[in-house]
Known about the structure:
- The chain is built from 8 helices and 12 strands.
- It is an alpha/beta fold.
- The chain has one domain: P-loop containing nucleotide triphosphate hydrolases (Rossmann fold), CATH 3.40.50.
- The strands form 3 sheets. The chain has a 6-stranded mixed beta sheet with strand order 6-9-10-3-11-12, with helices on both faces.
- Strand 1 and strand 2 form a beta hairpin.
- The longest helix is centred in the C-terminal third of the chain and has 17 residues.
- Bound molecules: adenosine-5'-diphosphate (ADP) and magnesium ion.
- The site of magnesium ion (MG) has 5 residues, from helix 1.
- GO terms for molecular function: ATP binding; ATP hydrolysis activity.
- Belongs to the ABC transporter superfamily. Ycf16 family.
Amino acid sequence: MSVLEIRDLHVTVGEGDDAKEILKGVDLTVRSGETHAIMGPNGSGKSTLAYSIAGHPKYTITGGTVTLDGEDVLAMTVDERARAGLFLAMQYPVEVPGVSVSNFLRTAATAVKGEAPKLRTWVKDVREEMTALEMDPAFAERNVNEGFSGGEKKRHEILQMRLLKPKVAILDETDSGLDVDALRVVSEGVNRSRAELTGDDAIGVLLITHYTRILRYIQPDFVHVFVNGRVVDEGGKELADKLEAEGYAAYVKDSKETAKA
Length: 261
Ligand SMILES: Nc1ncnc2c1ncn2[C@@H]1O[C@H](COP(=O)(O)OP(=O)(O)O)[C@@H](O)[C@H]1O
Ligand SMILES: [Mg+2]
């Protein structure tokens, strides 16, 4: 059983006089076996939260803690975070010129597990997962993210998640830019991990999204409304239906009034 705990997290971007506080005290707990959705308007700081947990150098942590099973995530290097069992799929994944998907996945699996996966089972696992994600086998020889379409990027992320078997996966806008078929395939990949991995291997999922669309495919156990750098409301999946009907306007208004007071 794993627990990712975010406590009173404050994060700024920019340097010196340009530094701007984006996260203003985020509290969130994700346990293995649970799926959480963070929903909020554009610019509310959702990606900043994902990047901060990932250890992106552009984001400065000015307060609060992030722990995974009691270990200080913020003190870890990016590699150590992956080895500890965190997986982060980014809204804007980077290109890795000259590195094929197949090599990238094997290197990542070796780094995360501390030893190279056995070639025979590995090749089979990769092939099976690619088939399940409706990916062309030739895709394995493409360079990572080079010229990938939106759907290919997201399939590649879920392929990584399926093979690396993290304790907690953070998926930022996994639904953006996907057509309905790609959305279904990607969601089924996440749902396979949720269903297949049980007990000590169970996965915690933090799904960051602007739209409620993906939540029809991946049903969250908890929904957190994120506005102006913090969680302002929480509930079960019925909260997503309310947001779909009413939008974020009421929360944004409240948040502005609180800021003025
Ligand atoms: N690297 C950065 N440099 C400058 N501003 C940033 C950076 N990252 C995020 N921001 C600002 O922080 C705010 C929140 O952005 P973001 O976390 O991407 O929101 P969301 O993912 O909810 O749309 C925005 O005002 C954005 O312009
Ligand atoms: Mg974002």
